[in-house]
Amino acid sequence: MVKAIRVHEFGGPEVLKWENVEIGEPKEGEIKVKNKAIGLNFIDIYYRKGVYKPPTMPFTPGMEAVGVVTAVGPGLAESRKVGVYVAYAGGPMGAYAEEQILPAEKVVVVPSAVDPVTAASFMLKGMTAWFLVRECFKVEPGYTILVHAAAGGVGSLLCQWANSLGATVIGTVSTKEKAAQAKEDGCHHVILYKEEDFVTCVNEITSGKGVDVVYDSVGKDTFQGSLACLKLRGYMVSFGQSSGTPDPVPLSALAAKALFLTRPSLMQYTVTRDQLEQAAAEVFDRFTAGALRVRVNHTYPLSQAAQAHADLENRKTSGSIVLIPDGS
């Protein structure tokens, strides 16, 4: 038996229960991993609330973890041997556990230069930033982009990556402290959305032209304003909904400026093993080369996941949040 966070009903952070679970042994093509660090992501909150539906109830949340291989099923390559540190991000769900069984094809080996806590803080977020700026919409020199929640886990990496590609980066944040962080992370312009109307600010910054692309993980509170910030034939990339599901958008709302609208997720860009390895390699390479700075601003014991969820939802955090299994 191992300890894990379990969810028996949808709701607030209080539904996260610290319980004993039986995980068994790895079958063919599987490995057992003793988790050392677990990334907390907003998608975990969506599943906890029931915005996204888990495959079963009860369930163990979590889409990202780093740990050491403790057992392997038959027929696996040498790279998945006992003692190797591996990471996974994006599925299967179940990372909020001291140990878990994973499909070997879903994990990547963690470079020796990257410690587990750091790796767990940026695997999912880093690959999300990768597909947003390199695959979903290719950011190029001279583009102007708008990033909501610029001081968040994904936002921080997204701003750094876009800046390094030669884009002018505009970010929105809630506090002056987060504004300072966003500046350090490559934002050329930072908007305090609680004090300023971000649409008006973007209009002023771009001299009325608008931005090439908006990366919006906030959802309901920013969606209509994000559309208003786009230039002719601009791209609206809605990849989260921390404030709630946006209201439906009629096609006529896109027609005036011939806008493009997409709602992607990382899992659609790492379908094959080759795609997963490409994404992970680019993220690890940029980190080890110093091109990406990761901010592990908050760590919590895994048993206190409920408090971590509450703090993230109440916007008391910035950068990445990592859960540490008790005893690790």
Automatic annotation (TrEMBL):
- MF terms in GO: mRNA 3'-UTR AU-rich region binding; NADPH binding; quinone reductase (NADPH) activity
Name all Enoyl reductase (ER) domain ranges.
11-323
| Entry-linked SUPFAM superfamilies | GroES-like, NAD(P)-binding Rossmann-fold domains
| Domain of life assignment | Eukaryota
The record's listing under SMART domains reads: PKS_ER
Per the record, what is one GO cellular component? cytosol
Matching Pfam families: ADH_N, ADH_zinc_N
**Keywords, comma-separated and alphabetical:** NADP, Oxidoreductase
CDD domains in the cross-refs = QOR2
Q: Which PANTHER family match?
A: QUINONE OXIDOREDUCTASE PIG3-RELATED (PTHR48106), QUINONE OXIDOREDUCTASE-RELATED (PTHR48106:SF13)
- In Swiss-Prot or TrEMBL terms, this protein is called Probable quinone oxidoreductase
Q: What organism does this protein naturally occur in?
A: Handroanthus impetiginosus
